[in-house]
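Re: that backbone. Tokens:
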């Protein structure tokens, strides 16, 4: 009997990973992507797995939450993390990629797989059969309405924001200096130093900057996600809030003077050629004219040329604790799975992880096998256990973090040492779990 193809809806990170895992399991898959027929408010290209915000997947070190998730996915054969490793650009201790090459390579690779059919069309209703929903936080209105009818629940929402990107040649290198915090790894960040007077002036202007006005329904229903808090919102929380956040000067000194600044704005390389630089932590909802005026107050950026200004958009997600199993199956329809920001995980790597598990389990359903759930002592297992068991009343998007992993059997006061033990346990349990499939 001919195997019916599994349908994956959405060609972002989660959908791309899910489709690849299904095809690698020997099952035909149809990957539906509405671009370029229809674009969301955040996408700019028709490529799969387009990175619409930062180009960073987070810390590389495996004793960091994001880095541990990277390593788990490497060991599971993730195509997203594999391609991220191939297209990495210097970013100190972070895994950052040349976003153009990264998404183009994934598009070419998926399209060339003999079991993957890429269909450029919008899907307005959930199909029959085995389906993976990976439509992301900007699901098209018709499909969102059908999902609402299926679940009987309204979406939850929060606001997400993207940082500006600057042409490297427009940055004054006589002022900005190359360094990574604590001299960790290669000097990969451009740092714009501020003295106290410059910082206070910048803080005041930023605090009073004019934002894009939210629509009534957005203002009433949405919340800011703390990990992507707009820079102007941080400024309004207090004079020193930014100095303890993205403008923290600790661990940075100008090798030309040996001095540490009062505050530092960091720029991270966007592409392999170093022609484009991202303002780290500067996601914003300021009006575009205000962005240019205020951000050019930063020393070294007086003549900054912006290739992309910051934008903010509403992200939507379902109430996963009421609807989902840790296998990423819907409770009321086990052959319907979902992954990515749609289910309330936050971050690129978490989207890839969800895509991996949803894809693997969709393939197992097609093969008549029992779906997998991962040990909660792994970062992947802890993340999906959380989104399926958290309090539905207070559910908010969750990034990978050690706070959701079960405690160790012993107390370890040193945080770095404790995280290292978490890592060792996670990777050991992952390898043991892999042998049980």
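Recovered sequence:
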């Amino acid at each position: 009997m001919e195997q019916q193809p599994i349908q994956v809806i959405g060609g972002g990170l989660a959908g791309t990973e899910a489709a690849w895992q299904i095809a690698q399991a020997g099952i035909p898959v149809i990957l539906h992507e509405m671009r370029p027929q229809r674009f969301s408010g955040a996408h700019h290209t028709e490529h799969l797995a387009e990175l619409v915000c930062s180009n960073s997947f987070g810390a590389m070190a495996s004793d960091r939450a994001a880095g541990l998730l990277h390593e788990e996915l490497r060991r599971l054969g993730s195509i997203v993390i594999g391609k991220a490793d191939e297209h990495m650009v210097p970013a100190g201790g972070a895994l950052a990629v040349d976003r153009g090459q990264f998404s183009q390579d994934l598009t070419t690779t998926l399209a060339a797989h003999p079991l993957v059919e890429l269909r450029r069309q919008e899907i307005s209703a959930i199909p029959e059969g085995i389906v993976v929903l990976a439509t992301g936080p900007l699901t098209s209105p018709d499909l969102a309405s059908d999902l609402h009818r299926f679940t009987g629940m309204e979406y939850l929402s929060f606001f997400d924001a993207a940082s500006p990107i600057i042409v490297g040649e427009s940055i004054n290198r006589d002022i900005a200096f190359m360094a990574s915090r604590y001299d960790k790894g290669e000097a990969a960040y451009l740092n714009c130093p501020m003295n106290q007077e410059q910082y206070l002036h910048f803080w005041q202007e930023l605090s009073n900057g004019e934002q894009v006005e939210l629509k009534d329904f957005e203002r009433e229903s949405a919340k800011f996600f703390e990990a992507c808090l707009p820079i102007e919102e941080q400024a309004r929380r207090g004079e020193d809030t930014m100095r303890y956040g993205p403008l923290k000067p600790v661990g940075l000194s100008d090798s030309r003077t040996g001095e540490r600044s009062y505050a530092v704005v960091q720029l991270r390389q966007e592409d392999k050629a170093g022609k484009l630089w991202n303002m780290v932590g500067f996601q914003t909802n300021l009006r575009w004219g205000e962005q240019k005026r205020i951000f050019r107050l930063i020393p070294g950026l007086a003549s900054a040329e912006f290739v992309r200004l910051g934008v903010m958009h509403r992200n939507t997600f379902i109430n996963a604790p009421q609807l989902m199993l840790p296998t990423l199956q819907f409770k009321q329809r086990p052959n319907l799975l979902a992954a990515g920001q749609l289910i309330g995980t936050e971050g690129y790597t978490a989207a890839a992880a969800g895509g991996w598990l949803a894809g693997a389990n969709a393939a197992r359903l097609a093969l008549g096998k029992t779906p997998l759930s991962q040990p909660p002592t792994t970062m992947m297992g802890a993340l999906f256990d959380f989104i399926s068991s958290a309090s539905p009343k207070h559910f908010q998007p969750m990034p990978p973090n050690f706070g959701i992993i079960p405690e160790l059997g012993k107390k370890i006061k040193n945080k770095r040492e404790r995280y290292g033990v978490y890592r060792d346990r996670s990777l050991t349990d992952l390898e043991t779990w892999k042998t049980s499939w």
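DSSP finds 13 helices and 18 strands in the chain. The first strand starts at residue 6 and ends at 9.
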